[in-house]
From TrEMBL:
Signal peptide: none annotated. Its main location: nucleus. Residues 44-64 are annotated as: Disordered. InterPro entries: Med7/Med21-like, Mediatior_Med7, Mediatior_Med7_sf. Component of the Mediator complex, a coactivator involved in the regulated transcription of nearly all RNA polymerase II-dependent genes. Mediator functions as a bridge to convey information from gene-specific regulatory proteins to the basal RNA polymerase II transcription machinery. The keyword RNA-binding does not apply. This is Mediator of RNA polymerase II transcription subunit 7. One of its GO terms (biological process) is regulation of transcription by RNA polymerase II.
Length: 248
């Protein structure tokens, strides 16, 4: 309880900042600028004048920054070079080009590819039950038939008289339906792979449905406009007839 009472209240409401966030201290940023001359991390302030004086960075009368290369080179001895490399590792910009070279990126513990790719059965490490050259409309019905047949066999195995544990261990099974459950798992994964190939057709069909729905809505709007125009025309005609009757 004493440890819980000592925690700041922000830890109970928000997750703590990532570890690399703690490296961006004011002292580390100024030191990084003094060693590299890179001021992109710093906001313009009066406190940078002392850093400029110690790092060989000065301003002329026009306000332009002048760097004394001899002063900077003289500062970077072996220990400071090691310090510079350490600061670059902590404060340097992330290398987005490495993500493109590797072709993968991770977010919330999940791995993604820079170019989205639908995995095949071989990529997942499953035995392929379908011909890759066949269309999903041809390969899915046999998979469904095999799935239902295996499910019936599993139910039949589970409804049989229980065997002795020694007999199951001799067969290498934990229970009666081991082989059928594994086969059902492989069939389901292959069905998912085949279904993923229908995404293009599904998106196209969804687009067609949206366009048809929009067309029907436009037709209804047109009918309402025509009805309104007819109503207005009838009202105008009635007013003209009323006016003519009064003139007579």
């Amino acid at each position: 309880m004493a440890q819980e009472a000592g925690l700041p209240i922000t830890n109970t409401l928000f997750p703590p900042p990532p570890p690399y966030f703690q490296a961006f201290t004011e002292e580390a940023l100024h030191r990084y600028r003094a060693l590299t001359g890179d001021s992109s991390f710093l906001a313009p302030s009066a406190s940078t004048s002392t850093v400029e004086q110690g790092s060989g960075i000065a301003k002329n009368e026009g306000g332009a920054i002048q760097v004394d290369s001899a002063s900077v080179e003289r500062m970077l001895d072996e220990s400071e070079e090691d310090e510079k490399q350490e600061l670059e590792g902590k404060l340097g910009r992330p290398r987005a080009d490495w993500i493109n070279e590797d072709g993968r990126w991770m977010c919330f513990g999940s791995m993604y590819t820079t170019v989205p790719k639908i995995p095949t059965a071989e990529d997942i490490g499953l035995p392929p039950f379908i011909d890759p050259s066949e269309s999903p409309s041809e390969s899915l019905p046999p998979l469904l038939h095999s799935f239902l047949h295996t499910l019936l066999m599993l139910l039949d195995a589970l409804s049989m008289t229980a065997r002795t544990p020694d007999e199951l261990l001799a067969s290498g099974w934990a229970h009666e339906g081991d082989q059928y459950m594994q086969h059902l798992t492989n069939l389901t994964a292959n069905m998912m792979v085949a279904s993923n190939q229908l995404r293009a057709a599904q998106s196209e069909a969804t687009l067609v449905l949206l366009m048809e729905k929009e067309l029907e809505e436009r037709k209804k709007q047109t009918e309402r406009l025509r009805w309104k125009c007819k109503e207005i025309a009838g009202g105008i005609k009635a007013l003209k007839e009323l006016r003519g009757a009064k003139e007579v």
